[in-house]
User: What shape does this take?
Amino acid sequence: MADDLVQRAHWGDLAGQNRAGLVRLSLEPDVGELATAASGSDAGPAAGGSTKWRPVTRRDIKSREEQEKDARRFVESRGDRYVYTYEEPDTSAWKRKRVRMPDGPVAYRVIRPVFEGALENLKSGAAPNGERLDGLIVYDIDRLTRDNRHLEDAIEVVENFRRPIFDITGTLDLLTDNGRTVARLLVTVANKSSSDTARRVRR
Assistant: This one.
C-alpha cells in the first residue's frame, strides 16, 4: 500500500514523487469578433475581411508558459519534483478529424499525439528525458481533455497502472470512483459547450 501512488495522492502524500505537466492551448475562432463582423461594425469574411483566430483559454490561463509555471510551483510546494513538460501547441481537445484506423476502416477521432504519448509514458513510468515518472498534472480538467474517449484512456492509466493524474484547480479527481463519475459528467458538459460554440461560429 505504501507504494500505491494513487492511494498516496488521495491521502495528500505527494512528497518525493516525480511529476510532469501537460500544458495545452488550442486555436479557436474569436466568437466576439465574428459577432461584431456579422453586425456590420467591422469587416468580416463577407466584406472582404478575414476571421481572426486566436488562442482561446479560460481567463486565468494566459499562455503555455504560465500553465507550466503554475504546475511547477504547485508540484514543488508539495515536496514533489517537476521533471518534464508535455507541450501541446495549437491543439484542440475536442475537434475530431477523419482518420483511417490500422485495420482499414475510417473513423473520426480527436488527434493528440502528445497527450497519448504522455499516457504511454505514465504506463511505463519514464518521461522522455529518462526521469522516473510517477504522475501527471494539468491546470484544470479542460486542459486534460474535452473528449470522453480520451478521458477513459486517462482513467485507465490511473486505475490500472496506478499513476495519478490531477489538476491545480481541484476540478479534476480521477483518484476515486465518485471523482471519476464527476469527471465524466464534466467532460460531457465541456464537449457540448465546444459543440455549441462550433455551431454558433458556423452560423
About this structure: Residues 61 and 67 are 7 Å apart (CA to CA). The helical segments are 5-11, 31-39, 64-77, 113-124, 141-144, 148-161, 177-202.
